[in-house]
Every structure is written in structure tokens, then in C-alpha cells.
């Protein structure tokens, strides 16, 4: 089975059972609302049920039919698709958002090329990725990661596809406790209904309440202990 199909099955089931979280509840909202105020055309790739862009103004595309059906029920412009072949014209968007997706695909060069293709000159790209192969854990395997990125390699890859990194911040809601992650994976595998009840009603709301404001730095900073980075990039003309 291909990695794409494995991811599709995992997230189709997850999003069929999870609850939609409004973008205003994430710590990315202050930045997103600022960037969105200056953008006429916005795209979020692979939001699942965790969108960061405003539902009433952006276009969404995701591999999960369950997620996109939920979006359309809210009146959002949503379509089923994959990052390797985005169903949009060249330079169609002023603001592109892609959280936790390029690390899931076999061919990330094509994924970055597609993000670059649909971004207009001067467009903002908001991108999150996990860092450092040395930080790999069983959780990466469980959620379908193909890779973690080394900071210099990631910066070079973005530059090759026409993106300049403007700012970066430490990012992610993953618990630091490996025991807690192991316990969560066990329950999702062996007692899924109970696990999803706790995920929807306890762990996700608690994680949202415990979010800290993002601390932005100019350029791309790699510091010890960073698991995931969030980058603001600009598409060059």
C-alpha cells in the first residue's frame, strides 16, 4: 500500500470521528488574521479538521472526504484532492497555508513545487514541519510521517522553489511526555472509541487552553529541543 493511501485511510477515519476546531481557537490566529486582512485569495492545503484560515473566506483542499464534507456543511469552499496535483491555476492565491503535510508525502519536491505554482508573486506561505531526523519517535511512524527536515536542507529546498523565509517560531501541540504519547497510541489502536472520546472532550480542549503565544524571530532559527517549526515565507517575483 502506498504512503498516500495509508495516510488517506488513517486521516479519513480520524476526521470521521473528530470534532472541527475553529481557526480562531489556535495560537496562529493573530498572525493569520493579520495576513488574511491583506489577501484576497487564500488557500489551505490539508487542514483536516484543524483549519487555520477563516472558513468563510478561504479555499480548502484535503485528501479526506469526511473533512471536506464537514467544511462544505459550514458553507466553506472545499474540495477533495492531494498536494501533488492542486486543482487550481498558476498564481491563484495571495496567501497559502500548509500545516503538517509535506512531511507525509514520498515526493516532497512535487509538493513544494505545487505550493509554489499556485502562489502568486509576493504571496505569503505559512508552513509547519517537524525538524531533525535524530528526533524521530514511534509517533512519527504512527501518524504517517515520511521524514523530518534538517533546517539547512529545508531552507535550501524552499529557496529552490522560490520562497524566502521571513520569520520562524517554535510550534506544535504534541505532548513532550513520550509515555503520554505511547499511551495515546495504544488506546487509539486497541480502544479507539474511548480514545476518541478523551481526545475530543479532554485532550484537544486542554491542548488549546495551554497554547502559548507564538514567539517570532526574524529568519529561520534552529534551537535545541525544537520539535516543529512554523515559518512565514514570501514567494519571490
Automatic annotation (TrEMBL):
Recorded GO MF terms: S-adenosylmethionine-dependent methyltransferase activity
Single biological process term from Gene Ontology: methylation
Keyword Protein transport: no
Keywords annotated in UniProt: Methyltransferase, Transferase
Residue ranges constituting the Methyltransferase type domain according to the UniProt record: 61-126
Designated name of the protein: SAM-dependent methyltransferase
